[in-house]
Amino acid sequence: MVTALQLTDDRTTAVGTSGLPFTDFTDRADECAEDRAEVNAGEARGSFTLTDVSVAYGREVVIEGVDMYIPPRAVTALIGPSGCGKSTLLRCLNRMNDELGNVRVGGTITLDGQPIMGKTMDPVELRMRVGQVFQRPNPFPMSIYDNVAYGPRTQGIRRRDELDSLVEESLRGAALWEEVKKSLKKHAFELSGGQQQRLCIARALATKPEVVLMDEPASALDPISTQQIEDTVAVLKQSVTIVIVTHNMQQAARISDNTAFMLRESLESPAHLIEMGDTKRMFTHPEDSRTESYITGRFG
Amino acid sequence: MTMTAGRRRRARLSEVVAKAVLGAMALAVIGTALFALGYIVYNGIGAINWEFLTEVPKNRGREGGIYPVIVGTFYLVVGTAAITLPIGVLAGVHLSEYAPRSVATRSIRLAITNMAGVPSIVYGLFGLAAFVLLANFGRSLIAAALTLTCMTLPVVITATEEALRQIPQDLRQASAALGATKLRTIRKVVLPAAAPGIVTGSILGLARAAGETAPILFTGAVFQMRSVPDSPLSQFMALPYHIYAQVTSVPDWNRTLVWGTALVLVAGVSAVSVVAGVWRSRVRRRIKW
């Protein structure tokens, strides 16, 4: 398995100091190009291919005909107005829709070529490879350490030194280590909202996933915490694939390499993927007029 | 919109009246409780001394202490808790986390709610028929504890279900997203988080059981024993039954000692509630959903 996190200290420090909310795109694009070069050269894992994916709640089809390629070790943003199925599509990727009961997912989704929806894929294994960070920080009511160690312990890891190093590595990955390294036994609820969300990122990283799904991870946070989360994402994408749902188009523009725009044009019809592509291109020269309207704020 | 002066005055007046009425009601409730408590303490405090707490009753309870009575109630409550808590908590977990939303589940929930409303003397009769006679435990601690279990179970089940419902769905999802099975999620995340609520509800139920006379009347409580019960099949003395028996069947009963017995019962139940309350608030202080 690819080691999800190999972050050095200087990278962690860089997180705290990098740019303002509107970093210019050229830098990012260069970074992307470098990442892709690495990807092509190396053994990068964590790419999704979606073919004709549809989702139905009971009888109501809410998403239809989505074809999508999510490249490894890059940030893919899902944008679109409320109710356009972004979060629902996101939950297909770790089969969290299974938990909801009456949801049916059609089509095929593969993770690095391996179909994830059939009986051949154990959802438990899938979720260790595909972590998730939720909209509101939702740490477990236990210590910081136990929160991060929860996933590895679920996998059966018991050895103290192994857990210790996983916890440290994950907290570094989420840029939280320096703030909490002296108080790992502290209750997670004593952290601020932004720290809690980074704890949740660390918790997701601790199972060494190839992909981390983020469902509007900063929407409940203040601007400074949002900034920290975005900086964390920028570093994380060097080692894991990130799929992020966001309402905030500036955020999508700032942090993502690729953007997918989804739209449900009426309540009677299901949502579709309207357009997907390189973020810079999507935000400067959208191909579809609906994308352009949404991006320029004419609806949604 | 602006109000006319008259409307404003009327609004202000009804506000004042509402405050007065609500305040008076609250005061009436608190006052009654304080008066009852104060009256018990005032009348019973004179009986409390070392001898009273450590000696057996003499002269049919007119003299001596209530040691076997205290121990009997203690055993009874511990026995009831030992049977009720596992069954009640597991049933509550099933209802909250596993049971499908069906007519059957709703009927069961309704039946449980109704069980909580059945008069305690009915449980006493049921216990006599089911545990004393049918199961052939005889009049004993175990028969009485099982009877009290029937009475307390609905409270524990409902408290558990209610406490589990308070736990945000977010936490269950976070656990599932980390690859945890449902059982692991419940054991490691949901139940620990719900523990304060479950404990509070259970203690309320057990406190009520500790003070009941009717369910133990036919199932094992006795008027006089020379020593404490030595097996689950022994008969036993119990605080509420001791009070009842003194007042109804001992001529010239000793008022101070009976009030003292009542004081011991109230103090014991309150002590447990206070300890649980302190523990709960320490745990809760950190938990804000």
Description:
The complex is a heterodimer of chains A (300) and B (289). Chain A has helices spanning 9-17, 25-41, 86-92, 123-129, 144-154, 160-173, 177-180, 193-205, 223-236, 249-255, 279-284, 289-295, and strands spanning 48-57, 60-70, 75-79, 103-111, 114-115, 130-133, 211-215, 241-245, 258-263, 272-278. Chain A is α/β, with parallel strands linked by helices and 300 residues long. In chain A, α1 (9-17) packs antiparallel against α9 (223-236) and α8 packs parallel to α9. The two termini of chain B are 38 Å apart. Helices cover 74% and strands 1% of the residues of chain B. Chain B has a two-stranded antiparallel sheet. The A-B interface holds A 94, 96, 99, 124-125, 127-128, 131-132, 134, 136, 138, 140-142, 150-151, 154-155, 187, 189-190, 200, 203-204, 207 and B 168, 170-181, 184, 188-189, 192-193, 286-288.
Question: What would you say about this model in short?
Answer:
The complex is a heterodimer of chains A (300) and B (289). By secondary structure, chain A is an alpha/beta fold. Chain A has 12 helices and 10 strands.
Q: Whole-number average pLDDT of chain A?
A: 84
What shape does the CA trace of chain A take?
globular
Number of strands of chain B: 2
H/E element string of chain B?
HHEEHHHHHHHHH
Oligomer description: heterodimer
Task: Report the end-to-end length of chain A measured between terminal Cα atoms.
Answer: 41 Å
Radius of gyration of chain A: 19 Å
Helical fraction of chain B: over 70%
Structural class of chain A: alpha/beta
- Within the largest sheet of chain B, what's the order of strands? 1-2
Tally the helices of chain B: 11
Number of strands of chain A: 10
Over the alpha carbons, how many angstroms does the gyration radius of chain B reach? 24 Å
- Structure annotation, total helices of chain A: 12
Low-pLDDT ranges of chain B: none
What would the average pLDDT of chain B be, to the nearest integer?
92
Categorize the overall geometry of chain B: globular
For the sheet with most strands of chain A, the description reads: 6 strands, mixed
Reading the helices and strands of chain A in chain order gives HHEEEHEEHEHHHHEHEHEEHH
Separation, N- and C-terminal Cα atoms of chain B: 38 Å
Largest sheet of chain B: 2 strands, antiparallel
